[in-house]
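Input (structure):
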């Protein structure tokens, strides 16, 4: 009896090591298939879909009922501005400290010097990254000063490219900008200028200011794209976080399919390369549930079939009988005691 118990324990251990669970039971604030994604929230997340119960870590966004897979790569970055206000309360780094407070008197915003005809602010992006979405929080009570600003991106080839130029007479204190520039950016530069009242127009002030309270530059975590809530499983590395396109060969990992390799084969009753094999061909206890790569039946076999793939069946007879066994069966016999 002691030997039987030991053998049973060894078999269970072997199964655990060979076939780790792919969904559920993730630890160390991770989630998803093979627990490959980080929750990015201190309170932990649902270990299947990554939904965080509370807020994200600083520098990550969303949470509180959704995933924390949107990263602000400007957070705590290296910054500079063209000049400083006469006190050192409004330095350039105030715009990347994670505080979105737009009341400048709370000391939460940057502020360039007085009596200038131009003003600028810059944050370095490390490592250089393709930028798509930028969100800027300006001083709320004097947002008109932000009108006609230009947002530039400095790419790895040292080219300064215009991402956006504001041309309207009105402006909101929170500005969202999408950049259609595919090269990697190493610095983001916000610029504004003013001339005389005659050349600037009556709606403009004589002097230029830059009073940014927060600048956020969003990218998705690796393996997510679009709104950073969609997941891709590409063979040759993470997909493009904007388009979801897979790099290199454009192929999916084994066990996934779809335009962006987003579909788990097991979720549609299939397995293998590009979901080319059907789970229903096996004799799984649940005919539609098998491992996305190997075809192993996740809930075991139907009676009389052999794990892990349940494609061979057993044939139990008394051992003293001569039995012809089919090629796809395994002969088991019962000896008389």
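Output (sequence):
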């Amino acid at each position: 009896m002691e030997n039987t118990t030991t053998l049973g324990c060894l078999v269970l251990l072997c199964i655990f090591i060979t076939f780790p669970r792919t969904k559920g039971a993730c630890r160390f604030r991770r989630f998803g298939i093979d627990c490959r994604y980080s929750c990015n929230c201190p309170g932990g997340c649902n270990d299947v879909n990554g939904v965080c119960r509370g807020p994200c870590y600083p520098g990550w966004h969303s949470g509180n009922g959704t995933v924390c897979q949107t990263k602000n790569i400007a957070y705590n970055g290296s910054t500079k501005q063209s000049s400083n206000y006469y006190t050192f309360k409004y330095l350039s780094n105030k715009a990347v400290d994670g505080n979105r407070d737009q009341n400048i008197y709370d000391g939460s915003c940057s502020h360039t010097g007085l009596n200038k005809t131009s003003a600028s602010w810059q944050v370095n992006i490390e490592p250089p990254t393709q930028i798509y979405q930028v969100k800027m929080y300006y001083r709320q009570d004097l947002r008109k000063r932000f009108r006609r600003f230009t947002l530039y991106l400095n790419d790895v080839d040292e080219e300064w490219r215009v991402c956006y130029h504001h041309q309207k007479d009105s402006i909101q204190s929170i500005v969202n900008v999408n950049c259609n520039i595919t090269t990697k950016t190493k610095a983001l530069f916000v610029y504004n200028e003013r001339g005389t009242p005659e050349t600037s127009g009556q709606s403009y002030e004589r002097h230029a200011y830059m009073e940014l309270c927060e600048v956020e530059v969003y990218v998705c975590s690796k393996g997510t794209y679009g709104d950073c809530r969609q997941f891709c499983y590409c063979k040759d590395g993470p997909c493009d976080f904007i388009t979801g396109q897979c790099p290199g060969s454009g192929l999916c990992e084994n066990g996934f399919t779809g335009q962006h390799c987003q579909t788990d084969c097991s979720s549609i009753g299939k397995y293998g390369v590009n979901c080319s094999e059907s789970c229903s061909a096996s004799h799984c206890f649940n005919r539609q549930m098998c491992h996305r790569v190997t075809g192993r039946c996740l809930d075991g076999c139907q009676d009389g079939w052999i794990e892990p793939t349940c494609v061979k069946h057993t044939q139990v007879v008394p051992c003293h009988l001569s039995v012809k066994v089919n090629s796809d069966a395994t002969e088991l016999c019962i000896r008389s005691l």
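Notes: The longest strand covers residues 118-130. The mean pLDDT is 84.
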